[in-house]
Amino acid sequence: MAQPIAYGDVDHEAALKYAVQLIDHRWAQVIEGRIVLVSPMWDHEKVVSKIRRQLDARVDELDCLMGSGNLDLPGSPNWYMPDLAVIPADLAEGAGALLPDQTLLVVEVTSDSNAETDRVIKCKRYAQYGAPLCLLVDRQRQECILFADPHDLGYAVVDGPHPFGAPVKLPSPFGLTLDTSGF
């Protein structure tokens, strides 16, 4: 008879992240150890689509891909699915989850159900895990904030808040200005 595995011998982080990947036909994240099912609404997707269209040509020029694939934060109880991420195209080949420091940009668009999580927890974690740029589109406050220069405590550079309608400049490697009207 096989010996039972002691509770303390289980890699709880790995087990949790494995479980969230098995949830069929639903977007799921692990945020601070809690499985969160994600079901974006159309008004949310409208904003993501507007950003995507503005980035599209530049993403192609940079030989990158844009999407909402999984981001793992190893050593933490977090497994994120950003609303949008830009990654180098060569990293997508055979990749499962990537790390935030492998992205060029992550975008989070708030919803009524997750606004505080996106504003506080996810932006801080993206910085701790080295995502170079994080764009927070806060639909409840009707503003955008661009975070840059990540470190362990958060982002050193905070550009904004910019009210919807004001342009938001994305630095290198993007070198373009987002039109936020209609967000």
Question: What does it look like?
Answer:
This protein is an alpha+beta fold and 183 residues long. It has a single domain (40-178), classed as Alpha-Beta Complex (tt1808, chain A). Helices cover 24% and strands 33% of the residues. The chain has helices at 12-21, 42-61, 115-128; strands at 27-31, 34-38, 64-67, 71-73, 78-80, 84-88, 105-109, 133-138, 143-151, 154-163, 168-170, 176-178. The strands form 4 sheets. Strands 3-6-7-8-9-10 form a 6-stranded mixed beta sheet. Strands 1-2 form a two-stranded antiparallel ribbon. Strands 4-5 form a two-stranded antiparallel sheet. Strand 11 and strand 12 (176-178) form a beta hairpin. It is globular.
Brief rundown of the structure:
The protein is α+β, with helices and mostly antiparallel strands. The chain has a single domain, classed as tt1808, chain A (Alpha-Beta Complex). It is built from three helices and twelve strands.
Relevant terms:
about 180 residues; globular; six-stranded mixed beta sheet; single chain; two-stranded antiparallel sheet; tt1808, chain A; alpha+beta; about 25% helix
Task: Compile the SSE list and pairings.
Layout: H1 12-21, E1 27-31, E2 34-38, H2 42-61, E3 64-67, E4 71-73, E5 78-80, E6 84-88, E7 105-109, H3 115-128, E8 133-138, E9 143-151, E10 154-163, E11 168-170, E12 176-178
* CA-based gyration radius: 17 Å
User: Helicity range of the residues?
Assistant: 10-25%
- CATH topology name, in short, is tt1808, chain A
Structural class: alpha+beta
Uncertain runs with pLDDT below 50, 5 residues or more? none
Question: What is the architecture at the second tier of CATH?
Answer: Alpha-Beta Complex
Tell me the total number of β-strands. Answer: 12
Determine the CATH superfamily: tt1808, chain A
Q: Biggest β-sheet, characterized?
A: 6 strands, mixed
Mean pLDDT: 87
Please tally the helical runs, counting DSSP H or I stretches of 4 or more residues: 3
Give the DSSP E fraction (strand runs of 2 or more residues).
25-35%
Using the coordinates above, name the CATH class: Alpha Beta
- What is the end-to-end distance? 61 Å
Our count of domains comes out at 1
Taking strands numbered 1, 2, ... along the chain, how are they ordered across the largest sheet?
3-6-7-8-9-10
Q: State the order of secondary-structure elements, H for helix, E for strand.
A: HEEHEEEEEHEEEEE
Indicate the overall shape: globular
